[in-house]
Amino acid sequence: MRDFEYEAPTSLGGALAVLSKGTAKTMAGGTDLIDQVRMGRHAPDVIVDIKKIPELNVLQHDASGLRLGAAVPCYKIYGHCGIVSDYSALADSCRIIGGIQIQSRASVGGNMCNAGPAADSTPAVIALGGVCVIAGPKGTRELPAEAFCVGPGKNALQPDELLVEIKFPARAAHSGSHYRRFIPRNEMDIAVVGVAASVVLDDSGQKFVSARIALGAVAPTPLLAQAASESLAGQPVNESSIAKAAELARSIAKPIDDMRGTAEYRVHLVGVLTQRVITAAVARARGENIGHAH
Amino acid sequence: MTTAPKPKYKVIGTRPIRHDGADKVTGRAKYGADIKLSGMLYAAMLRSPHAHANIKKIDTSKAEKLPGVRAVVTSKDIPEQGDRIVELGEGAVNMRHLASNVLAREKVNYRGHAVAAVAADNIHIAEEACKLIEVEYEVLAPVMDVIEAMKPGALVINPDVKDENGKPTNVAKTFCFEKGDVAKGFAAADVVIEKEFRTATVHQGYIEPHNATVHWNNDGKVTVWMSTQGTFSARQQTAELHRIPISDVKVIPMEIGGGFGGKISVYLPPVAAALSKKTGKPVKLVMDRAAVFEATGPTPGSVMKVKIGAKKDGSLVAGEAWVAFEAGGYPGSPIGMGCMCVFACYDIPNAKVDGFDVCVNRPRTNAYRAPGSTQVAFAVESIIDEICEKLKLDPIEFRLKNGSQEGTRRVDGPVFPRIGMKETVQAIKDSDHWRQPLNGKNRGRGVATGFWFNCGLKSAASATVNPDGTVSLLEGSTDIGGSRTAIAMQLAETLGIKAEEVKPSVVDTDSVGYTDVTGGSRVTFATGIAAIEAGKDIINQLKERAAIIWECDAGQVRYEDGSVHGPKGVSLTFKQLADKLHHTGGAVIGRGTSSEATQGGAFGTHAVDVEVDPETGKVTILRYTVAQDAGTAIHPSYVEGQFTGGAVQGIGWALNEEYWYDTNGTMRNSTYLDYRIPTCYDLPKIETIIVEVPDPQHPFGVRGVGEVPIVPPPAAIANAIHQAIGVRMTELPMSPPRVMKAILSK
Ligand SMILES: Cc1cc2nc3c(=O)[nH]c(=O)nc-3n(C[C@H](O)[C@H](O)[C@H](O)COP(=O)(O)OP(=O)(O)OC[C@H]3O[C@@H](n4cnc5c(N)ncnc54)[C@H](O)[C@@H]3O)c2cc1C
Fold first, then answer.
1. Hey, which of B137, B263, B655, B728 would disulfide with B53, CB 3.0 to 4.6 Å?
2. Number of folded domains in chain A?
3. Both B388 and B499 in a single domain?
4. ipTM, two decimals
5. Which residues in A have their CB inside 8 Å of a CB on B?
6. What is the pLDDT of residues B395-437, one digit of tens each?
7. Whole-prediction pTM value?
8. A-contacting residues of B 79-138, CB under 8 Å?
């Protein structure tokens, strides 16, 4: 491993100043980054630890929605009652990223910035309508979560930019969300396929008002399944409407064969998981307690 | 469950706290990587990025010039071996192949093959220097598949491996065993099932990576600190490779974090020795996880065609097996043992086995618990299940009817002495697990039996009586599964003292007599015998000492229940007499060896309940029970530990573990993230039943227990999956994509 400098600025301005100098790498929990440096995938001159910056540790939940600082670790997210009840899919995903050691450091910001196709929290953030707040030398800009990842390991940030926080709209009435992945074991694994869904039902709880479905590990980036999501709007909650959405989700999956599963199998799983996840999200929208499956 | 009235033991069968327990649970135990010597250098290895290539040129000059680099070695620094075959305790080894595996000569035969090594002031410099070594490769097409490698015209990996006509080939060895008349046997069968099976390459998955620290002293004496399954084997391999006398090498065993057959071959000590010889300083070399996966022996993947015939009444009449194992980059898979195990669980009058050891561009394979048996059991036990299904026979009754017993002749010749195969089947039949009905959708129950020989080989021990009545026991068997305690208990039982009063130490190769590897489930058996012999030797000497004190003839002294008894009712306890040894001639040192004793063979039968998710193909293990014949369980907790550990490894082999290669022959899952051994969330508590059919070859009836528990799981799980959802899996691992594919094509 090549030697590098370590800096831990305490202000956003300080961090941006270090980043502007060139071959620096941002570090939140470091659970991806340190391993990548060790393996020689990156050889930064400077590592900028962003955990000491107040803006990146924001965790604010009120009537207007949720603000989640990019460096907030997973354990704080699934330990937050408001997130568990109103942004369940996000809590579901944070609960299964790595084990307890990883969860006490790993952040959703890092998970998104790492831009892995199989990142667990990204589909949840997309399904929940998350918006990325990005700071750079020219000020701040915003980007919908589904536009944030642009390729395997590539995100929309410039080298001198930082992801500061992710903003989520307030939870709608009669809404519910869920994230679930398929792994061959029951923990410590990377998603073969991951699916998140957030649904809004009408007052009766029998009809979809709207839905957002997102897929992981089936394309170079996590995907918003647009057609599948739109197909549910105005439809009754039943097997056939859910099966149709699952079929539409399958049609956009373009996975690869690798050590985690065959392309054929992954497409199959998209159908199975989409149905299971929508069904669970509906149950939550109806106020049922479905627990949290691994 | 015991089959014979058990002798009354005081120590055997109890569960004392292990002697090395405090060090292990407090983290104080010293493993290979914990070694730190003054002046020590750190080494790194350059490994081949190609699965198959000729080495045209290696230029180390840039690496040598990097500040902090002390030495660079390549195969030139390991002497030429010529065409030598050397007996290394657990088999003959072609020294040229062993040397080439340690540092590649003309060719690299698998990705990760060691090519050069650097010693430097710290590991970072050593690693950077490796990148400066320039190797010119002529890349060849990788030969990854056994069947492809066997085809005439296949690219030959080792030009010096030749067939009977002197033509180079990848088929390094063929075996054929036969008994009875197979054609006649099949002609008499009412049902014949024939199927092809495949199993993946799997790794032993020990937690501790390979390591070695070596100091080549100015006087030519070489000291090696390492974790190994066999110090004497490591000594001999290191000495032979450097062509120096074995007595010039001393191997000091460190604690070992798992081996399972994978820590017998040497990889690092000869290289660290070459670096130390060049620098005059101790050199430490430790593998990372990727190197462990890519370059140390996994156990072979296999292709098998098995055919078995039975009569309507359920009697087996004939069996035929064609078995090809991956040898890896050099010959030497456990194919011979696989061929001997194929039909070992059953009394089949007519049988034939053909076996092939096939070189492919994968790391050279090695033993892994019950080497060779798990693969063949997957095939045979699946077919037995299908025969039972066709004939509507209960699989337990079928095994009780056809199972091997004393007098059954194996296909390779030997006749079984007293064994406990049927007793393990009966134990499952009587178990709570088997008697409870299994309800629910997509659930199934499976059963399978497994066999392994278990080795005797050679062991030595010595023991000194201390003045306070304790005994210091020196042994050469590195302790992997709690064997210090199991050996100490046998000495304690012999002497009539407490287990805690024996203080066992695993010592270096200069401090104890020749001892073969900790492998083949031989240590509790053979090193146990050596300790018992040492105990008897102590007893004889104690009688003489007592005779001196009592001024009588040694023949008038009896030893009983931990005391010496003399004429006219005089007696001294072991402790009392121990205190008087200084005045009666000094130290009493007992010694013992074991070399002739062989084990009678061990069997286990497993039952498993699974649930299959019909939409994803994922298999969940609901309940799992192991019944195995331990002969006599010395320390039942360790016996149960071996049953559990072996079963868990077998479950991993069954469900998810595999070397996943891309088209270039690069393993893409050389991490524990993607090489999926089961975690505690993937397993129920493994229930264990210790069956005790004492082995007459051991004074206390011990049978080794480490090998067999890995054998039945893949077959038992396959049989359970079949019952759950009606598909028969013929390829390992039975991973979710594969099970799903089978369900969809039903
Ligand atoms: C044992 C283990 C198990 C794991 N299991 C899972 C799993 O189950 N699911 C899963 O999805 N992942 C898993 N991971 C991967 C990793 O833990 C997650 O991706 C985690 O969320 C990364 O967060 P982090 O804070 O540690 O990121 P870091 O490692 O600090 O950063 C990741 C990347 O993002 C960049 N970055 C971080 N924060 C910012 C920012 N604010 N602005 C700009 N760039 C930034 C870094 O430069 C780096 O390139 C696992 C990792 C390990 C080691």
1. B137
2. 3
3. no
4. 0.95
5. 1-3, 182, 184-190, 192, 258-262, 264-265, 268-269, 272, 294
6. 999 999 999 999 999 999 999 999 999 999 999 999 999 999 9
7. 0.97
8. 124, 127-128
